[in-house]
Amino acid sequence: MFRNITPVVQNLLLINILVFVVANFVFPVLNEWFALYFIQSAYFKPFQFLTYMFMHADFWHLFSNMFGLLIFGPLLEQFLGPKKLFILWMVCGIGAGVLYSGYSMYEYKSLEDKVLTFERNPDPDYFNKLVLENRGYFSPEVFDFVGDFSKNPGDPMYIERAEKTLQAILRLRSNQPMVGASGALFGILVAFAMLFPNTQLFLLFPPMPVKAKYLVGVYALYTIYNVFVNNPTDNVAHFAHLSGLIIGAALVYGWKKDRNSFY
After folding, report:
1. Cα angle vertex 257, ends 251, 263, to 5°?
2. Would the keyword Transcription be found if you checked this record's keyword annotation (predicted)?
3. Which residues lie across from 200 on neighbouring strands?
């Protein structure tokens, strides 16, 4: 495996591993500076559209992305050439960050409108609905408060606490960073499936062979499902994964139409 590693794949692996080591053991503040924040956050900087894809939440996050690059990247680099593989990785990664930021703005505005609706009409049932939709941001005791609020719907103290709770969610949502090269990796996956659709890949779990087009197809469907389900306890940026797939597919489709552009 390592004997067949290609130059761009090797450099991307080394950069990601080096950044992870430095950010976690030398300069931890890099995790705050280089993660991608919500555009309206005080922590947002435009360069984060590039830097976030070299940051990772933990070792297993890094390992899964780099393992995927190591498995699928070398053959793609040999076929497309170093320049196009690098373009594919960077454009999918940056593009996924940009599209995810737009999606986050839409979600934030939707939640903000719901909070305003509650403030105009502080109904305990509506508050309970918002709590369930965003339960990943709450500590368990908030559910005790929901019950108390339902028993005292007109109490100004309960209404004020409910409003502060929802405002706290808005602050958390606006300052929640995204990190990882998953958007770029999903661009690599879809490119591999489009260029080598019938290549047999052997899975570890379950131990069985599967063609690349079916494997990536299942990944794509799973990602789309999670985008629409939008589980509030799931901290994976599924929309960024989907964005990487779409951008990667568009790039490869354009390249396949112009056969003379492969190098």
Report:
1. 70
2. no
3. 211
Token look-up 């196009």 returns 84
pLDDT tens across the length of the chain (263 residues):
556 789 999 999 999 999 999 999 999 999 999 999 999 888 999 999 999 999 999 999 999 999 999 999 999 999 999 999 999 999 999 999 999 999 999 989 999 999 999 999 999 899 888 888 887 777 777 777 888 888 888 888 989 988 998 898 888 888 889 999 999 999 999 999 999 999 888 776 677 788 988 988 988 898 888 888 877 666 778 899 999 999 999 999 999 887 665 54
Amino acid at 82: P
What CATH architecture is 2-104+180-261? Up-down Bundle (1.20)
pTM: 0.88
How far apart are the C-alpha atoms of 179 and 90, rounded to whole Å? 14
Q: Where in the chain is the domain with CATH 1.20.1540.10?
A: 2-104+180-261
**Lookup: tokens for 56:** 């990772």
Which residues, 6+ apart, have CB-to-CB distance to 252 below 8 Å?
88, 190, 191, 194, 195
